[in-house]
């Protein structure tokens, strides 16, 4: 999902000490901040959303009135796991999620378990607005290519 680090520099030796915050605590705090109408900037961790979100990308997440198919959301799954995955379907009031690089595995959650949606992605100083027509079109094409993803990902990852 994401990772946040608390950095402290020791004045004695100049070394940084990093403290990692568990995803559960991070999710609760992100949800609280977004409930106040503020957005949260996270550093992506993992490769399940490749090629749209890569490990180390900066991801801006915020609340929306409604979440729709195609949105990348920060959610607590029914298995108790925190993910940043794309909504692929809403069926009978249940939201079905899948990482863009996942070939089979899906997760489910309830709409109230979605903390927010990805607003923008920053990689190497370049900002991509997820609501742009171009980004929505790329997402739709990627979803349509699902049967061919294994081959496409193999080629992309070289």
The N- and C-terminal alpha carbons lie at a distance of: 24 Å
Structural class: alpha+beta
Tell me roughly what share of residues is in helical segments.
10-25%
Beta content comes to: 35-45%
Which residue ranges are poorly predicted, with pLDDT under 50 across at least 5 consecutive positions? 1-11
Order of helices and strands: EEEHEEEEEEEEHH
CATH topology, by name, is Umud Fragment, subunit A
The tally of structural domains comes to: 1
Overall pLDDT confidence: 88
- Tally of strands: 11
The number of distinct helices, counting runs of at least 4 residues, comes to: 3
Describe the largest sheet: 9 strands, antiparallel
What does this structure look like?
- By secondary structure, this protein is an alpha+beta fold.
- The protein has a single domain (2-11, 25-156), classed as Umud Fragment, subunit A (Ribbon).
- The protein is 21% helix and 37% strand.
- It has three helices and eleven strands, in the order E-E-E-H-E-E-E-E-E-E-E-E-H-H.
- The protein has helices spanning 23-35, 133-144, 149-156, and strands at residues 2-3, 5-9, 16-20, 40-44, 58-62, 72-76, 82-91, 94-98, 107-109, 114-123, 126-129.
- The longest helix is centred in the first third of the chain and has 13 residues, at 23-35.
């Amino acid at each position: 999902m994401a990772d946040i680090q608390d950095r402290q520099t020791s004045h004695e030796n100049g070394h940084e000490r990093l403290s990692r915050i568990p995803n559960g605590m991070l999710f609760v705090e992100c949800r609280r901040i977004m409930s106040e109408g503020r957005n949260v900037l996270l550093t992506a961790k993992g490769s399940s959303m490749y090629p749209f979100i890569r490990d180390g990308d900066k991801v801006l997440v915020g609340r929306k009135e409604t979440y729709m198919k195609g949105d990348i959301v920060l959610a607590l799954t029914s298995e108790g796991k925190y993910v940043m995955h794309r909504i692929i379907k809403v069926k009978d009031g249940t939201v079905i999620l899948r990482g863009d690089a996942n070939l089979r595995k899906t997760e489910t959650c309830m709409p109230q378990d979605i903390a927010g949606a990805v607003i923008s992605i920053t990689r190497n100083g370049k900002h991509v607005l997820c609501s742009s027509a171009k980004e929505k079109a790329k997402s739709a094409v990627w979803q349509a290519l699902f049967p061919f993803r294994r081959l496409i990902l193999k080629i992309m990852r070289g």
